[in-house]
Amino acid sequence: MAATRSKLLFAAFHAVVAATVSIAAEYPMRPIRIVVPFTPGGGTDIIARAIGQHFSTAFGQNVIIDNRAGGSTVIGSEIVARARPDGYTLLMQINTLTALPAMMKDGQGTISLDQFSPVSLVAALPHVLVVHRSVPVASVKDLVSLAKAAPGKLNYGTPGAGTPVHLAIALFASMAGIELVHVPYKGAAEYTAAVLGNHVQIVFGSAPTAIPHLRTGAIKALGVTTARRIPQLPDVPTIAESGFPGYDIVSWYGVLAPARTPNDIVTRLSKEIAVATKSKTFADALPDYVLIGNTPAEFAEFLRKDAEVSTRIIAQSGAKAN
User: Fold this and answer.
1) If DSSP codes are grouped into helix, strand and coil, which group holds residue 64?
2) pTM here?
3) What would the mean pLDDT of 25-29 be, rounded to a whole number?
4) Which CATH number fits the domain that encloses residue 56?
5) Residue 139 belongs to domain with CATH number
């Protein structure tokens, strides 16, 4: 009886393995969905659509971009975490994945790394500290002086708690010793509209989102968040050189699948992302981004280290979830 049961279990195990291998070999056989936990138009959405176009061409399948904004990316992220781990539902995520757990009490209403299978880091993007054109400042130093003269009177917009934009401003405010009011939105399009309408006075906009409005004079650029000046705005100083040495924050963008997605599928997706990020077509479509593309193991290690960095920033800045 025991021997028969063992044989049955052994046969069942090999049947599952064979089925998984078969599914991975034939993947993908139907459309792929990439969930973006923000509204359309921001950096995460732009990257997701570029990856989706590449997947569609490479795999010969339609790719659906599903914008599910809200909850500081938790709403969209949970959709993917709960999806069947078969490679047909993916997540385009940012720094929030590693920052939010450190900001939430007892992990309430948050997401965690162990809910996902890392696929690949895709790109990084600098941010620009901008203010509405009516704000009477011309430099980071001026902004700090204005904020100190009127604590709690200046508002800043972000696409949600724990996002790199939120951490960037919270860290800046902490280093400058100023008090600003956080106004969270559901995406870059919303907080950009807010600063254009002077509903908030400050945002740390992504370079591709901010630059068109800088050209019209609707907003003013005071500093960039990277350690070095960026080619797109060579005359705009870094925040570090504006009196805050060591300041250096960027957004990263990566693709994740639900936990327990077969390794063969994760590896295939990762290899296609590497092909995309090395292509001229991709580079031409995303001139403002630093394109990366790495292996699942490398991305997993990157996430681990980024979580440590995010935790330190949150502790230093006192950033809160609301």
Assistant:
1) strand
2) 0.78
3) 88
4) 3.40.190.150
5) 3.40.190.10
